Amino acid sequence: MEHNGALDSLLQEERVFRPLPQLVIEANVNPQEYDAAVRNGNDDYLSYWEDAARELDWFRKWNQVLDDSNPPFYRWFPGAKCNIVYNALDRHITTANKNKLALIWEGETGDTQKFTYYELYRAVNRFANALRSLGIKKGDRVVIYMSPLPETIIAMLAVAKIGAVHCMVFAGFSAKALRERINDAQAKLVITADGFYRNGRPINLKKVIDEAVEGCDSVDTVVVVHRANVQVEMNEPRDLWYEALVRQESPECPTEVMDANDMLFLLYSSGTTGKPKGIVHGHGGYMVGVHRSLNWVFDIKPTDIFCCTADVGWITGHSYVVYGPLMAGTTTVLYEGHPLYPQADRMWDVIAKYGVTIFYTAPTLIRMLMRFGTQYPKMHDLSTLRLLGSVGEPINPEAWVWFYKNIGRSECPIIDTWWQTETGSFIICPFPISLLKPGSVFKPLPGIEADVVDEQGNPVPPGKGGQLILKRPWPSMLLGLYKDPERYKEAYWSQVPGAYLAGDVARKDEDGYIWIQGRSDDVLNIAGHRIGTAELESALVAHRAVAEAAVIGVPDSIKGEVAKAFVILNEDYNDPEDPDELLKQLKDHIRRELGPVAVVKSIEIREKLPKTRSGKIMRRILKAEEMGEDVGDTSTLEND
User: Which residues form the Acetyl-coenzyme A synthetase N-terminal domain (predicted)?
Assistant: First the structure.
């Protein structure tokens, strides 16, 4: 059987959901405008992105929209002068947004803080002045190792305001993983907190920092925020309290004028597959992509309250907790703690309490909360919600429908977004006006050209899976990998000439909708049929007994490879008296859903699955355990 590197597509999802007429009428981009934007983006994508750039403030205009003279090192808006913080804060201070709430923060213990744009602007200026007084200057790297606190956002913005480079490291990483990132970035300063709250108990962060910076010759200063009042050791003169540092500083601070392609931040990949990659984003193109995508895709209105559950340490936190909402002049809700503390209704309580209108979260969180049934959502008034969003991994259709019906009241479109740390902003996703198919990420945004191709780079027919590629550059793309241009070319641009290789497998249906089938590394080859793990996992989760599932391939003497599944059962599921009966039911269910090609040799029931702290299942650890191999680096595990 000849497949030409294409994947078999087994999961057939035929449900279609239409937006409410009122929502279409009130959308920022109506169907006619959307069609025109798609045409403009296809016919003259540079003109399309230039129009998007004009929506922001620049200190000096660009010489050209795109310099593509040295591919794949594309440079957007060369010659332009800007600073993303000017667009996120400074420009609002002369408008009606000045006294509008920029940030509502809620700690796990129930304490809250609120900042208007003016208050946030002044707090950022104070810390920016303090950083300058500590000798931090344009181009210096600053590592931020903090939980979701107001000071985390203040620190990011202050670093960027003075032209330094922030490198956020998620506050769950081990000292070893943190040290590796500090040394690679050659950071001069580290910002942290004494601790934070997680699942009802304080976690000491400073202790991790102390261990990590041993042997980091580049670090001169550690700034510590008071949060959890845990006992910490302050090593003078290196360690300084944040509150003492900013107390006497001026609330006014000039914003550094940056080139459009100067480095804004360095964000390391999670390290789940080998040495972490330092992904570099700049000021100009990144702010254009993030600003246009948030305003159009999430249909931002002056009255919106936006809540994204992503940690600030990941790219979703950078783009759609910090920079995107602030550039849009909207109000963001940031929650510090665990979504199940003190019980499984915490996120629904946050939505009801603050009147959240847009809720953007991950499939992992949705499936986690699904396990507890509908009792908790029913305890809260979720009627303020008008849009829901999904990010981070493919969302299986059953989780999509549960989210739509029980959280969105069958009225809120689900904006399922495909993008990556490398892409900086949304690449493939619907608009609120789109016809939605559960589990599909819809089509590329206007100005983006994507395709699904085989191993030779040829487009695959509808219904067949292949490699997802982007066929031309886009403004918010990474500038490269830190100090590693050859790895950048090899990892992303070498397989399909002139195209960016996403590393995901996908398929297009007959309507042009794109369905993500999993990572390229997670493709199974069962008796010559190449199958994405996401389809098998979706089929399992569609069974009423299963809350979450992970699938790996294991060697088989006859079929070459077969699937093994690991599942977590729903809380309210009553086990049959014979446990083998459930496993038989699940195998029969998969065959009914996907056909005889989907051979699952065995199913193991577990209490938990190995996940990164951003919620992605680490299948390589399951596979290593199954094969009796070394599990490798586990510093990114939620429960290391």
Answer: 34-88
